[in-house]
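Thread: Newbie trying to understand structure tokens

Hi all, I'm a second-year student working on a class project, and my supervisor (Dr. K.) asked me to get a predicted structure for one chain before our next meeting. I've only ever worked with sequences, so writing a 3D structure as a token string is new to me. If someone could post the tokens and maybe explain what I'm looking at, I'd be very grateful. Here's the chain:
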Amino acid sequence: MLAKALKNNDLIGIVSPAFCEDIKVIDDKIDTFKKLGFNLLLGKHLYSRSGYFAGEAIDRASDLMNMFENKDVKAIICFRGGYGSINILPYLNYSVIKKNPKILCGYSDLTTLINYINKKTGLVTFHGPMVNSDFNDEQTLESLKFTLMQGYSPYNIPFGGSVCYNEGNTTGILAGGNLATICSTLGTPYEINFNNKVLLIEEVNEYPYSLDRMLSQLLYSGKLSKCKGFILGHFTNCTVENYSKSYTVEDIIKNILVPLNKPIITGFSFGHDYPNLTLPIGSKIKLNFTSKYIEIMNNVVI
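---
Reply by user tm_fold:
Sure, no problem. This is what the structure looks like when written as tokens:
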């Protein structure tokens, strides 16, 4: 199921399903986002606070549902991540979402939201920048606009400077995002269906041993073996000062992922750094190691 393509001056709904933010930061980021050429409708609880959340879970869910139900809203872009998206999932009306397909875009903690909505409804969602992102990065902005506004036919994304392992063309359905968030849903109704998926994996501010632990959890729970391949993005600030008692991120990839003998792209531009390219969750893709493209095999909007 696909949403309608975004157009200049369309109305975009802005919601915060996870962490709250300071009023000045919200105002500044909203002012910047307005300059991209769209009209904005702010969620009722965008400025709310309940501890570290942007309001109670039921209120954050209400904001999201209101955007899906509002016929004038053409797309929904989340303000920021953090933590808390999982808590709104029990309050969402998935039949309403299915009847009102719209662009939904976010990343980080929103990994849970964009993957579960796709799983429940079949709606292609988008792993991409949020309102608090830096749109001075041209590739990030161009990718967002192209994908949401011109993604009505198949297209290709070059590997760029990615390092690849187990090269061999493969196709699958795109899923995943933030590693910690993926792992946090295991054993819940909201975990990703890993069967025949090309899994996106990125992370920020985690020590190498934490990455090892989380990837090992996916390995020993049998999730990684179900995937068709892996696209690894930014691993921002996932370092230590002294590697005499630590593996590097590259070491961990070689130790855990490479032995699975599944195609792997590393260093692809998405996640908690720039560029942060927009990628369609739930879309059929091909990892083409011959042409060095990720082929988006179907249109992602109509």
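A couple of things are worth pointing out once you decode it. The two ends are 10 Å apart (CA to CA). The longest strand covers residues 170-178. Feel free to ask follow-ups in this thread.
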